[in-house]
């Protein structure tokens, strides 16, 4: 997918705004600051592409990107904001549930987890939602360059233990570093192979 054939398409605030389900799509979720924009940019080979989704006002939208004219890449807003107003959170959760349970072309959700922190309580909420929506999800560890291999093993075994409790979890964990490029080709290959 490398190259400049990825583009921001649109921000969606209601199910009626979704593009036609004419391509396979994958979505990316993760708590704020997990490194989601950096990963999307590394994946598409376009620096700054995913920045649009991080600007204020865009944070409650489902952001659609085209990926190599064959897939949609869907950027779900970062979760875990401490002080978003409740009605905003509720409206967003409704849309997220509708999207996850009603999007036939959604092939897989990638849930980003910070290599330094492992799976936290805020992450568990989205994992349960994915279980309940029967959307296969795969964990992508981010910022692997920030910790040593030995510590990585510890976090990975914690993540494996937690994933064992989630029926929708895909067992293989992808370890990435957007900074150093590690794991990006693997992730690209995983998406390309989805059917
Ligand atoms: P988002 O809020 O999830 O979109 O997170 P960003 O992509 O904006 O990243 C949050 C911060 O983490 C930024 O300062 C990034 O430079 C940094 N970051 C993201 N990915 C990596 C990585 O792989 N390695 C390192 N060392 N820092 C990263």
TrEMBL record:
Record keywords: Cell cycle, Cell division, GTP-binding, Magnesium, Metal-binding, Nucleotide-binding, Septation
Gene Ontology cellular-component terms listed: cytosol
InterPro entries, per the entry: G_ENGB_dom, GTP-bd, GTP-bd_ribosome_bio_YsxC, P-loop_NTPase
PROSITE patterns linked to this entry: G_ENGB
Any GO BP: division septum assembly
Domain named EngB-type G: residues: 22-195
A Pfam match: MMR_HSR1
Cofactor(s) of this protein: Mg(2+)
Keyword RNA-binding assigned: no
GO-annotated molecular function: GTP binding; metal ion binding
Coiled-coil region list: none
Function: Necessary for normal cell division and for the maintenance of normal septation.
Family, as annotated: Belongs to the TRAFAC class TrmE-Era-EngA-EngB-Septin-like GTPase superfamily. EngB GTPase family.
Protein known as: Probable GTP-binding protein EngB
Organism: Salinihabitans flavidus
Lineage start: Bacteria, Pseudomonadati, Pseudomonadota, Alphaproteobacteria, Rhodobacterales
